[in-house]
Every structure is written in C-alpha cells, then in structure tokens.
Amino acid sequence: MWNEDSEKWDALKTPFAFGKLGSKILVTTRSKGIASMVRTAENDHHLKVLSNEACFELVRRHAFKEGDSTKANQKMKVFGEEIVKKCKSLPLAIKTLASLLKDKKENSEWKDILENEIWDLKEGKILPSLMLSYHHLPPLLKRCFAYCALFPKDYVFGKIELVMLWMAEGIVQSKPKGKNEWKI
Questions:
Q1: How confident is the model over 84-127, as pLDDT tens digits?
Q2: pTM (2 decimals)?
Q3: Could you give the CA distance from residue 91 to residue 111 in angstroms, rounded to a whole number?
Q4: Residues 145-157: pLDDT tens digits?
Q5: Which of 113, 166, 167, 183 is least enclosed, having the fewest CB within 10 Å?
Q6: Residue 139 in contact with residue 147, Cβ under 8 Å?
Q7: Which helix (H) or strand (E) is 182 found in, with range?
Q8: CB-CB contact of 63 with 99 (8 Å)
C-alpha cells in the first residue's frame, strides 16, 4: 500500500467488516506511516531483505531462459552483485530489472543499464528499476502510459474502456481476429 489517505483506507476496509469471522487482510508497505494507519494487530511483521542467494535466484529466473546456465553463470559473476546492490534486495525491483535485462545479450548492454544515471537520482515513490523499465519500453507502450497521465491520480479504469480510449486517440489499432470478430 502506498497511499496515506486514511479516508481511502477506511473505504477499502469497509466491505471486509462483513467478512467471515477470522478473515484476514494482509497489507504490505514500506511506509511506517501507512503501517501505523492500517494497523489492527499489535505487532507489525517487519520483513528482512532477501539474502544474496535468493536475489541471485530471482535474477536467474527472470533474466535467463531455461538452458542458458553457462551464460547465466558468466553474467551473474560479472553483474550479480551490482544488480543486487542497485535493487537494494527488493524483489519487485529485482524482477523488473531482470526482466529488462532478459532481452539484452551483450555485456555492454547490461553495463549500460547498470551505469544509467537514473540510479543516481534520489529515490522517490518510483523505484529506479521501474523507471528504467519504462524508459526501455517501445514508443507505442510509452504513449499508452503517457495517455493515462491525463486522468487524476487513483482514477479507476475499466480495461475495455481504456483500450477503447486508446483506439479513439489512434494510439492502438484493432486487428481482425476472424469473421465478424475483432481482437483488441
């Protein structure tokens, strides 16, 4: 959870007041303010960062295809420690960065990403690894994200509604699927 607005938290938890006795909601956050706002149990459970071994396994799983163990071992020797350090052992950051690196075959491409100046920016609400993955999106997908910025924060889109808006703006095109059917 990222939003510190207590009214939104109250609106979110209201339906759960009528759930089955013993039902639980698990809230994860990096913010102590949010943790204190949503606290219903006496003790928070503070998670530790992943071990280096767990981080390396996460990188392997998301950056390399099955059977590429030799390439994976070589790249992990050169870049493994740097990836873990850049991502601060956070699973979301590691998965995002590793997925970005998956399509990069050359060491120079990995080095360019790991030496990108985005890592030097002060971390705000957006993890540098997420920002980097956005910068490496194809231009069409960037336009889709940019279009969403026209709407207020926390605006809830319906999937079909959003695709139809993109189509109306000419950002995406529909393709014929079969006779009298369209694939979006």
A1: 888 888 888 888 888 888 888 888 888 888 888 777 766 665 67
A2: 0.58
A3: 21
A4: 888 888 888 888 8
A5: 183
A6: no
A7: strand 181-183
A8: yes
Among residues 67, 64, 69, which one has the least CA distance to residue 83?
64
Report residue 142 as tokens.
């960037």
Structure tokens at 167: 């189509």
CB atoms within 10 A of CB 13: 13
- Amino acid in position 102: K
Ramachandran bin of 9, using left for φ above 0, alpha for ψ from -120 to 50, beta for the remaining angles: alpha
Q: Are 136 and 130 in contact (CB under 8 A)?
A: no
Where helices occur in the chain by DSSP H, the ranges are: 6-13, 32-38, 52-63, 69-87, 91-101, 107-114, 128-135, 139-148, 159-168
Cα distance between residue 99 and residue 62, in whole Å: 5
Tokens of 7: 């009214």
